[in-house]
Structures are given as C-alpha cells and as structure tokens.
Design the sequence.
C-alpha cells in the first residue's frame, strides 16, 4: 500500500492501537515537493489470518495540491477460501510524464491530472498445501485532464485520454516453496475490455529468502511483466517502472514500456524488539537494498547495459498486529528518492 513515492520529508505523527477492540489507527502526515503536505492515515480491523468473521483495512489521505486517495478493502472467509473486495478512488494532480521508453531526461517532462476508480473482487483458495489460486474480476475507470502542452505527448502509445470504462477477469497462481527453500513464485494475468478496446497483461515473479540466524535475511525478487494492447490501454493504466513500482531511486512512472523487468536485492536486519505486553511487540529493523530495472517494447530490445540501477538504506517498523511501516532512502544516477509505504516491497 503506497502513500507516496517521492516524499522528501515524512513524519509519523501518531502510531497507536486499540488491541482490545481489534481496531488499529495509524494517522500520518508527510510532505512531498510535488504534492505538498499530506494528511491521512490507515484504519484496520482484524488484519490477521484467518480474518474471521471479517477484516477491514482502509487507507485515505489528501494533499494540499488536491490529490486524494481512498482505498477501503474487506476480507472474509468463504467456504474453504478467502474473499477480498477492494475499492480505490484516486485523484492525482500535477503528475509527471517523462515520455515513453527506457531513456529520456529526468528534467524534461510534462504534467497532467488524472482521476481513477477501481473495484476488484478476488476469491482465494488453496487446493493443496503451498499453492494458492485467485480468481475474480476488476472494473476500471479513468480520466486524464489538464494536460500541459508538450511534444512529449507524441511519444505516448495511446491517443484517448477521456472518460474510459473497462472490466475483465483477474487470475493468479502463487506457490510457496517447501521449507527447505524459502521463497515463492507467482503468475498473474488480467484482461480488460471496454467500448471498442481491450488490453491485458501477464506477470511472473520469483522470490527467495535465505535467513541467516534469527535476525538476518538476504532476499531477492525478480519480476517480469508483458503488456498486450498497449495502444488501446487508457493512459493511467499503461505499464511503467519507477519509484512507485519498485525502482526506488527514480521518479514515479519514470519509464514506460510494454515489457518491464525488475530485480530487487535486500539484506534485512532486525535490530531490536520491544515487548509492550504478552501479546504485543514492536520490532525495529533496517534494510540495505539495490534495484535494477528496464523497460522495452519488444524482447529483442532487452540489453544488460539498459538496466537502471539504484541502492539505498531502509527502515522497518513492525507494530502490534503485524503491520510493517517501510521507509526507503534510495540514490540513483538521477538523484534520490524516499519511499513511505505499508508492508515489505516483496
């Protein structure tokens, strides 16, 4: 759950919980050079498996530049599986477009505003130990407006920026490796159909975790995604790579291409744990990380020398209830990036 991918100053005002009611509230305030001051937080209830009788989580925030995010979701057991219903309403003002492709200049960009709504219903079940299957549907709506005049728009693979609705199926298979090899692999596919257009995507992920003792864990994730029907995809849903998708030392949506490749290497070190009471503990840890990613329109464009690299140091705070606050400080040839989010990157 990402709050902002280009936060320069991030301060947690309050972090408290009400364990007796199983409700937890995390108010937040931060500052971004592009969005201004951000006010918001997260409200969660019973976000610990098996999520019975139900679990609820909602992130919401507003920025002084008019940007808004509201993201409620419900979990509840159903038959032998778990149902997840998630809605998202987003308004992004002053969003940057750096042109399409794997290159470009970070200082050459144009801006636009966008509004997006998304509703997803997913049913997850496990037919055998270690294997989780997910199937469901998603509805998307987006509008792009107030586009600034710039020749960069010529590079965009799509030409329709108006109000567009689409809907279609979502399928995922996730397999946790046996205990001798910690890690997982997953395959995701989604298809969207609208009035006179359609687009789809396929994504494959491989991740490994090799604990050293009880407090140190090297971790590696490799992810590739292929997008189909790029010219028919509404602009806000075009595939991209940047700070918002795991290339932490770069601007959000910095690179755009139908094929995205990303590798993340982390060394996770837990420093200390503070026991509040018998059932509640706060854990503090740090992460040393490096990212490498590139985009392309065709597989034959992929080259070793086309990868964009970054590296940095992160802070992890795990609070009662198992929620982890992630803060990552990254450096790249294009400058620095600061990420504030809930949950590990992978």
Sequence:
């Amino acid at each position: 759950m990402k709050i902002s991918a280009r936060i320069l100053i991030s301060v947690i005002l309050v972090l408290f919980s009400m364990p007796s009611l199983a409700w937890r509230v995390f108010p937040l305030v931060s500052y971004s050079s592009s969005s201004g001051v951000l006010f918001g937080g997260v409200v969660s209830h019973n976000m610990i498996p098996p999520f019975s009788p139900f679990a609820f989580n909602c992130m919401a925030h507003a920025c002084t530049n008019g940007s808004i995010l509201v993201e409620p979701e419900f979990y509840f057991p159903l038959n032998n599986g778990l149902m997840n219903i998630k809605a998202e309403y987003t308004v992004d003002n002053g969003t940057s477009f750096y042109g399409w492709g794997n290159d470009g200049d970070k200082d050459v960009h144009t801006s636009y505003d966008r509004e997006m709504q998304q509703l997803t219903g997913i049913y997850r079940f496990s037919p055998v130990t270690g294997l989780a299957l997910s199937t469901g549907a998603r509805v998307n709506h987006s509008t792009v407006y107030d586009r600034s005049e710039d020749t960069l728009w010529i590079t965009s693979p799509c030409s329709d920026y108006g109000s567009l609705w689409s809907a279609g199926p979502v399928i995922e298979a996730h397999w946790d490796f046996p205990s001798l090899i910690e890690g997982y692999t997953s395959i995701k596919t989604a298809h969207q159909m609208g009035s006179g257009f359609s687009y789809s995507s396929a994504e494959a992920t491989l991740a490994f975790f090799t604990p050293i003792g009880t407090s140190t864990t090297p971790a590696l994730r490799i992810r590739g995604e292929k997008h189909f029907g790029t010219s028919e995809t509404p602009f806000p849903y075009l595939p991209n790579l940047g700070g918002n998708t795991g290339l932490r030392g770069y601007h959000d949506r910095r690179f755009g291409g139908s094929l995205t490749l990303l590798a993340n290497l982390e060394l996770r070190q837990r420093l200390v744990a503070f026991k509040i009471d018998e059932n509640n503990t706060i854990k503090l840890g740090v992460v040393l990380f490096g990212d490498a990613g590139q985009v392309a329109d065709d597989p034959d464009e992929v080259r070793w020398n086309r990868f964009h690299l970054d590296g940095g140091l992160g802070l992890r705070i795990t609070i009662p209830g198992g929620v982890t606050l992630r803060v990552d400080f990254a450096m790249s040839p294009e400058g620095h990036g600061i990420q504030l989010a809930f949950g590990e990157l992978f």
